[in-house]
TrEMBL record:
Belongs to the DegT/DnrJ/EryC1 family. It comes from Candidatus Methanoperedens nitratireducens. CDD domains: AHBA_syn (cd00616). Keywords: Pyridoxal phosphate. It holds the Pfam family DegT_DnrJ_EryC1. PANTHER family: 3-OXO-GLUCOSE-6-PHOSPHATE:GLUTAMATE AMINOTRANSFERASE, TRANSAMINASE. GO terms for molecular function: pyridoxal phosphate binding; transaminase activity. Transmembrane segments: none annotated. The lineage of its organism: Archaea, Methanobacteriati, Methanobacteriota, Stenosarchaea group, Methanomicrobia. GO terms for biological process: polysaccharide biosynthetic process. It comes from the Archaea. The keyword Ribosomal protein does not apply. This is Pleiotropic regulatory protein.
Length: 380
């Protein structure tokens, strides 16, 4: 019998993220929501999108939500709504999903990348002032891995230099900074509903949220050809729409978001207890914030060896992200980064994302922790 168990365990992989298990855990409600859209016959920008925009904006604590085609497009549209265009500069980090920088590129502006706080992997507020030039129009703080950026000093710099703050909340649905949800503190904020995100669709999707009615109106025009009414373009826009099936199922999942985030937080606590005596550097949690653990990222000098060791045991740990954006072929030499970005470059060599999703079990975490202890005991 023992061998059967061992065999089962060796066949079953522990994935880093698992959108299928998210679907299965809310299956009957999701199936029902999708069927109802199919039968209504209105498939893009309809009642479901409108209601989801209202519900999501209310959840974040802002007045307006504008559903769009992806997180990248949310950023592209938000930048354009803020008036960012060619010749302008936008400050963000190199340690992020490439989408953040791709969106600045799409808006025609020049990305200016600054270093991160090594403890939290988010933008270092002290690096902002020296990166500002007369061309700077906006700052994009990225709430990476589910951890809010240190928004207060960032907002202070923005006020001083009259810059827009565009929050990249693609990894931080529901995270809080000093009692407020991220996405409610900047001028305009962007979410992605890529399937593995804390609030994930079954395809692409994104949302812009803001308290500024003018920016919301502009974003609405931009996402559909600049139309204020059908077939009349008031500004030049393009097409980045959210469809009804995604909105209907995202409405179901939004009702479970807080409970799913609490499960992530519980699992993070469990990892923290189990890994306390290993030589890994564990995620630190900024005071007065709620970290929603989109990813559980540890650091090790033996990162590559650890990743391979875990993989051999059927545990998938990934690297977010292996090459900083300023060193990627598409961007190398084309973007400004005055300082050396040494924290970014060091982090990229040591970080590893352990399995983390709401349906991961306590016993899965124990399995991962056992494997890491075994790795440690081999002298790493
Ligand atoms: C996922 C992600 C995006 C982009 O979202 P897409 O929906 O994939 O376009 C932007 N920024 C960050 C930090 C992300 O993790």
């Amino acid at each position: 019998m023992g061998s059967l168990c061992t065999k089962c365990r060796s066949i079953r992989m522990i994935l880093c993220g698992n959108p299928l298990s998210q679907y299965l855990s809310h299956k009957s409600q999701i199936d029902e929501a999708i069927l109802s859209v199919l039968n209504k016959g209105w498939y893009i920008l309809g009642e479901e999108v409108k209601t989801f925009e209202e519900e999501f904006a209310k959840y974040i604590g802002v007045s307006y939500g504008v559903g769009v085609g992806s997180g990248t497009e949310a950023l592209h549209i938000a930048l354009t709504a803020c008036g960012v265009t060619s010749g302008d500069e936008v400050i963000t980090v190199s340690h992020t999903a490439v989408a953040t920088v791709a969106a600045i590129d799409l808006a025609g502006a020049r990305p200016v990348l600054v270093d991160i706080e090594p403890d939290f992997y988010t933008i270092e507020p002290d690096n902002l002032e020296k990166a500002i030039t007369p061309k700077t129009k906006a700052i994009i703080p990225v709430h990476l891995y589910g951890q809010p950026s240190n928004l207060e000093p960032i907002l202070e710099v923005a006020r001083k230099y009259n810059l827009r703050i565009i929050e990249d909340c693609a990894q931080a649905h529901g995270a809080m900074y000093k009692g407020k949800r991220v996405g409610s503190l900047g001028d305009i904020s962007c979410f992605s509903f890529y399937p593995t995100k804390n609030l994930g669709a079954i395809g692409d999707g994104g949302m812009i949220v803001t308290n500024n009615s003018e920016l919301a109106q502009k974003a609405k025009l931009l996402r559909e050809y600049g139309w204020a009414e059908r077939y009349i373009s008031h500004i030049s826009g393009w097409n980045s729409r959210l469809d009804e099936i995604q909105a209907a199922m995202l409405r179901v999942k939004l009702r479970h978001l807080d409970e799913d985030n609490l499960k992530r937080i519980h699992l993070a606590k469990l990892y923290e207890n189990e890994l306390a005596n290993t030589n890994l550097i564990l995620p630190k949690h900024r005071k007065n914030t709620t970290h929603v653990y989109h990813l559980y990222v540890v650091r090790s000098k033996y990162r590559d060896e650890l990743q391979a060791f875990l993989r051999n045991k059927g545990i998938v740990a990934l690297i977010h992200y292996p090459v900083p954006i300023h060193l990627q072929p598409a961007y190398e030499g084309r973007i400004s980064c005055d300082n050396t970005l040494s924290e970014t470059e060091t982090a990229s060599k040591e970080i590893l994302s352990l399995p983390m999703y709401p349906e991961l079990t306590d016993s899965d975490v124990m399995t991962v922790a056992d494997a890491i202890r075994e790795f440690n005991n081999k002298g790493f």
